[in-house]
Each structure stands twice: as C-alpha cells, then as structure tokens.
C-alpha cells in the first residue's frame, strides 16, 4: 500500500526532487504530490474564466482554482511536508500548514534556522522540524519501515 505525501511550499529550488530521489533510494513506497510549481501557470489558473482589469480579482480567481488541487491533495495525503525557503515569503505554505493543523493532518516543516521565530506557531503544530531534505527522507523511512 502506498503512502501519500504532499510537498507544499517553496518552488524555486529542487528540494522536492531531493526528497523523491532519497525516498526512491531508500525503497519507500510513496506517491508524492504537490501544488502547481510553474509560477506563471499558477498565477494564470483562473484566466480562462474571463479577463480581469483588477489584479486582485485575477489573483482571487486563480487562488480558488489552485485551491481545488491543493485542498484535495492535502486531504488525500497521509503526511504533508511544508518547505519554507529563505528567499521568498511563502504565505501559501503557511496557509497549507494551518489547513493541515485544522484537519489534524500530520505535517513536517522544512526550513533553516534563520526563520525559526516567524514560524514558531507553524512549527509548534508540526510533528517535526527538519533543516535538510535528508532529514525528511529519514522521517519517511522511519514512519514506513521502523
């Protein structure tokens, strides 16, 4: 039986690939899912619903279309990994972590020490805080093979 892991958050590095490669090397039966990681495509998710002259309404429509995917995949997951990068503020990742907390869905945060303070509430509800993708893979290995 496959374990479902949703990889939420930062889209500008290859952290998802690192976790997937590590899980594969460890022989873990995991199905990984994620949000749309093509920034332009995500921003344009609602454009087919009609042009907007105000960027607020364009973003509003696209966020709702993106939320169909995000909510569904988080709800179907067994575990969520939420990555916060140092370069950008990932408000969507914080929202995903809050959604997991509200659902009682286990999640692990992945971020550096430089942003411990702004993420203290997010980390407080997480099952673990990792600073490397290798640590995430080890958590997955333990959960599935211990």
From TrEMBL:
Highest taxon of the lineage: Bacteria
Protein name: YtoQ family protein
